[in-house]
Design goal:
By secondary structure, this protein is an alpha/beta fold. About 35% of the residues lie in helices and about 15% in strands. The strands form two sheets. Strands 8-7-6-9-10-11-12 form a seven-stranded parallel sheet, sandwiched between helices. Strands 2-1-3-4-5 form a five-stranded parallel sheet.
């Protein structure tokens, strides 16, 4: 691991919250780096600060690591997040305090891309509808009409990072035409993947299936507005395995309810879990999963192992592979 076995515990790592059966993976890896793990189950910034004020590092799943928390930390060198997104961490505040923010940028690409295709196929072939009909004693293919051949339909990708590129490669097998919008990806990448680059408006207008693959930032929060939904085909299906806050959920409900959009497949919402009274839950044209697109036993182990390893590296002065605030890279040694 690039460092000799540490003989004593020098560091304290507080896990602010988690939904795993235990923290054996984290404890085993971090012990090699001279760190002990202290579990907590925080829900508020105040609880995080109480649990982690004097910690050398924090690992968070969903707990909010706000500016209020960060400015009051006395020893913290690193804050890690179980996942790719770091929207529950105030990265700017951490950077001001020279605290490394660490994510796991590569661990579930296969799982999420598979989940997108599972959503797409289930929706396109009306699997949930037919399952419900058969359970109610209805054995009639006509109840699912209309179903159109998948080959030749357009899959639009909002964002063209690693996961979206995997979706594109897999979707081509079904004969889908792939288009994508991402102003931060070069023309060379689009050409290498054989995917047509389009602007945002054209993406909305032409997609039969629109899959979201952008992080939640100030730029993307609420990006899918009522106006943008109105530009989509009334026969289209919106797929979101990214972050719930990217979609105006009230606007999505009205678009689906009024027939301006045919369907949606949602793995993420805002907040999570959804309020039991959320109107979207009442619509039969919405397919759901509980923020599970990232999950397999393989990816779960990889996620926890990679993050624990990187926290250990950061505590011992080595550059973490998942460093988010790259401007702090100079304060670490490579190796």
């Amino acid at each position: 691991m690039g460092l000799a076995m540490v003989s004593r515990m020098r560091w304290t790592v507080v896990v602010s919250d988690h939904n795993y059966p235990d923290l054996t993976i984290e404890e085993t890896i971090l012990a090699r780096w001279g760190a002990r793990v202290v579990p907590a189950q925080c829900r508020t910034p105040e609880e995080v600060l109480t649990a982690a004020k004097e910690a050398d590092a924090i690992i968070s799943q969903y707990a909010p690591i706000t500016r209020q928390v960060i400015v009051n930390l006395t020893r913290c060198k690193a804050i890690g997040r179980y996942g790719i997104g770091v929207d529950n961490i105030d990265v700017d505040a951490a950077t001001e305090r020279n605290i490394a923010v660490i994510n796991v940028p590569s661990y579930c690409e296969e799982e999420v891309s598979d989940h997108v295709l599972a959503f797409l196929l289930s929706w396109a072939r009306r699997i949930a509808h037919y399952t419900q009909e058969v359970r109610q004693g209805v054995w009639d293919w006509k109840t699912g009409r209309p179903i159109n051949r998948l080959r030749g339909q357009v899959l639009g990708l909002l964002g063209f990072g690693k996961i979206a590129r995997l979706v594109a490669r897999k979707a081509k097998v079904f004969g889908l035409k792939i288009i994508a919008y991402d102003p931060y990806v070069t023309d060379e990448v689009f050409a290498e993947e054989g995917v047509e680059r389009v602007d945002f408006d054209r993406l909305l207008r032409e997609s039969d299936f629109l899959s979201i693959h952008v992080p939640l930032t100030s730029e993307t929060r609420g990006l899918i507005t009522a106006e943008n939904l109105s530009k989509m085909k009334p026969t289209a299906c919106l797929i979101n395995t990214a972050r719930g806050g990217i979609i105006d959920q009230e606007a999505l409900f009205h678009a689906l309810k009024t027939g301006k959009l045919l369907g949606a497949c949602l793995d993420v919402v805002d907040p999570e879990p959804p309020n039991p009274n959320d109107q979207l839950l009442q619509l039969p044209q919405v397919l759901w999963s509980p923020h599970a697109a990232w999950y397999s036993e393989n990816s779960l182990t990889e996620l926890r192992s990679k993050l624990a390893e990187d926290i250990g590296r950061a505590l011992n002065g080595l550059l973490p592979q998942g460093l988010v605030n790259r401007c702090l890279a100079g304060q670490f040694r490579s190796g």
